[in-house]
Description:
Elements: H1 27-43, H2 49-63, H3 72-91, H4 93-101, H5 105-118, H6 124-127, H7 141-146, H8 150-169, H9 177-205, H10 213-229, H11 246-263, H12 275-303, H13 309-330, H14 334-347, H15 372-406, E1 412-414, E2 417-419, H16 421-438, H17 442-468, H18 475-495, H19 504-530, H20 536-540, H21 545-558, H22 563-586, H23 595-618, H24 628-637, H25 642-654, H26 660-670, H27 674-694, H28 697-700, H29 715-721
Antiparallel strand pairs: 1-2
Organism: Tursiops truncatus (Atlantic bottle-nosed dolphin)
GO molecular function, one term: SNARE binding
GO biological process, one term: exocyst localization
Amino acid sequence: MPSPQTVASGPELHNPREPVVPQIPAQGTRKASSEDASSAHREGLRPGLGTLRRAFSKASQWASGCAPQEDPGLLRRSSRLLFRSLRRARDEGPAADQTQAATGPGVAHGREAPSRAIDGVSPQSSTGAGPAELEGEDKSVADLITERKLLAAFEQLRHLETRLVAEKASRTFEQDPTGFARRAMDLCLHYDGLAAEIGAIVLETLGPDGVDAAVLAELARVVRAEEEAHPEPPADGDFLCTPRHWRRHWEDAVRRSARERVQQVSAGEAPGSGLAQLLDELGRLVRHDLQKVQLEVHPAYAAAGYPAWEAYRRAFHGAVAQRLQELAHDAHGCEQLYILLDWASNVYSSPDFLGSQDLALPSELLPPLLAPDVWARLESDYASFLETKIASCFDGILQEEQSRWVAAEAPDVLQGHYRTSLSVDVHMLVAQHVKAAGVISAELEATTLQICTRALGLFLPRFEKAFLESGAVSEPNLCANINACEEFRTHLLARFPGSLEELEKPLVAATCAFQKQLLQGFQGDVQPLFKVLCTKAWLTQDMLQPLLDKVVAFAGHLEHVVPPRAQETLQEVHRYVVREYLAQALRPRERFRGVERVSGSQKMGLDAQAIGNTFQDLGSEATWLGRAIPCVADILGETYKDDIRRHLETLIRSYPDIRRDHVLAILALRRLGHRRNQHLLTHAQDLLRAVAKAGGPGAAEGHVLFEEIEVPTSVDVLVTCI
């Protein structure tokens, strides 16, 4: 028995009020009928009703949506070919009469009985009943389906189905199971044709021409009517009156329509430079279609009490998800991966995607657009590409800085501080990528921040080495680099708290390296000026002022350094000046005796005051350095020798890092005599041990002054010891 898809001709269901016209079956049908008739004559047997029931049960399953997916266009074309064939057979009725007249009675009965039954006329010889009539109908089911009068076609089919079931129950076809089979087959074919037309209407709904709202409303009503007519399968398992599941068929058609619409966007174009454009076109199409559904299609269905918006929304969501899965499979490179992630998380999921928040797609009711494992893979691939890209960006920043060094460009002064493009470039690089990742997901933002942190931690030592080896080392450039490192510590750490702790160590190391180079430059510049101090010429001339002028000039650069680092550097300069002054005083080139020693003590007092005033005016907070030079000057100029012990105690308590060698050098300058020197030295040693044991205030604060002063052993020191 031919399947519904392959039957090319057959009797047509039409109005029972029309005169019954004998029809000539198609050639294939005639051949099959002849063979059946001859076989029946040869063997004297007819096909059993159970065999036909099983055969048409399969056809019913196909009509109910249980068969494999079919091409709706093919099904629709097949149905229409069937309808045209049936109409052609009806038009050729007279020819059929002639053929019947020329055919024997037995053959005529074999061909004619099924046609009469399918047209709604029961065989008189079997039942003796007259034809059953449908009032108010003047068109065949095929014509009604073609004209998309779906509800009328269904009502006529339902009427014929009910009558066929009644005739079967009355054992009308007990002697003619083939006639029942033909009428049942034709009924199934028309039901399938009606289902195919439903699918065709759905596919055309979002097309350029669209579908009239009245047709959509009638489609919804016919689906509901079928559900009411066939609420559940018959108890006897008969394929007649079985549920056709047209609602599921309609939903499948909606999904197929959405899938075809989405797949047609730039079909065949591989992801590449046009990926952003492809996704933009996809977004416009989905937005246009869903807006049309919401504003035109859904109201038409809703008028018939049929919810269409949810079905279309889920269908397009699934179609978009499938398309993104395909694009994600072939996406490569940082830009492409980010475009996909951004479109999925921000464009498609935006409340304004459909142009109004009233039309927003509620994400909590829909499955993820990308499967979790696909999303994780995309983020992982993006992070890998991003790591390479950021490392390349830092290489570019270093090359740009090197070009600026070669051009000897001085740093700008912005808001009172030296500024270099390094700080701006790094801040923009980190902020840009972290912000971009943050709009995708919090996990990707944290990963991006870690990548930037590692890359910056590797960049700082390279930058430090390249700069110190270049010919651009100068006070302004060093100050600008110190400012940049400090901004990294403050701004980046403040903006991303708890994320950049591993940067603390390389930043401190780079800052210290630049500060050290800055101080070494200053020390090399002023070191020769200390050699003229504590000489006999120094007693009568102002040898300190050139040194203080250098200090003031150097402090002018520190005014353009951020306050924490500027104060640190200024205090270090202050400590260096006091330390070198004391070093020169403890190992003088010339020895003072008598009046010269007293004059030297007074001169040291004046120099100590000048140094203190200068650094105080510059803003140095290292007030602890102010007592060192005056204490040594007091010991040298003290006329009452018993008070030397008091000055020595003040010096040791103020500077616990002082050693026995320093005390010997100071006593050697004073030349007090062996016994007094031994007494003072013993007292100093006891005091040093007590201070070391108790931990003086200077030691607790980390103040270091005398520890870095080297005192060579001279003849005078040896004499003092002896």
